[in-house]
Amino acid sequence: MTKGAFYFLLLFSFDVLADNKFSNLLFLDDNQQSPPADLSVIQWLSGHWRGEAFGGLVEEVWSPPLGGSMMGAFKLVVEDQVQFYEIETISEVEDTLIFKLKHFNKDLTGWEEKDKTVDFKLVKVTDNKVYFNGLTIERLSDKEINIYVAIEHEGNTTEEKFNYKRVE
Q1: Please, which residues have CB within 8 angstroms of residue 14's CB and are 6 or more apart in sequence?
Q2: Across all residues in the chain, what is the average pLDDT?
Q3: Which of 49, 76, 126, 167 is 20 to 30 Å from 57 by CA-CA measure?
Q4: What pTM does this model have?
Q5: 3-state DSSP assignment of residue 153
Q6: Which pLDDT value is given to residue 152?
Q7: Contacts from 112-121 at CB under 8 Å and sequence distance 24+?
Q8: Half-sphere exposure in the Cβ direction for 132 (13 Å, CA)
Q9: CATH pick for 3-166 out of 3.10.20.30, 3.20.20.210, 3.40.50.12780, 2.40.128.20
Q10: Diameter of the chain by CA atoms?
Q11: pLDDT tens string 118-136
Q12: Is the pLDDT assigned to residue 24 strictly greater than 60?
């Protein structure tokens, strides 16, 4: 598997994506501002989560809110081999939230440039979903979540679903 197969969208046309009816994703219009929010709307994400995707196991661990942010770590393991990692944050910035991440190969060499991150601005908050620009986190219960992400591979953009169960 190549990193390109999993590379979350960095550059794309929001207008084109908005026209493709993704069922669980929302996108900001060019002139649309993120709504006000703080970490209380997503603190339920804290914990250790595991699921299956891309022919292997996926795992995410999220810290509780502290200092205006939550930090997370992701990894994909296929056939007992780590394929890649992500370091993630959800932070309170200017009275709203932003989700940022960086990708790393299994040897921890980075995908993005040194000072670059993949950023997802907040679009909308509902009782059980927090929509970021091209990424949605859905709370099904205290023990199960879905994360939906717009992923580009070979020029095609798809909505990928990651279903996670809480690790007790």
Answers
A1: 27, 28, 29, 30, 133
A2: 89
A3: 126
A4: 0.86
A5: strand
A6: 84
A7: 112/10, 118/8, 118/9, 118/10, 121/28, 121/34, 121/96
A8: 24
A9: 2.40.128.20
A10: 45
A11: 999 999 999 999 999 999 9
A12: yes
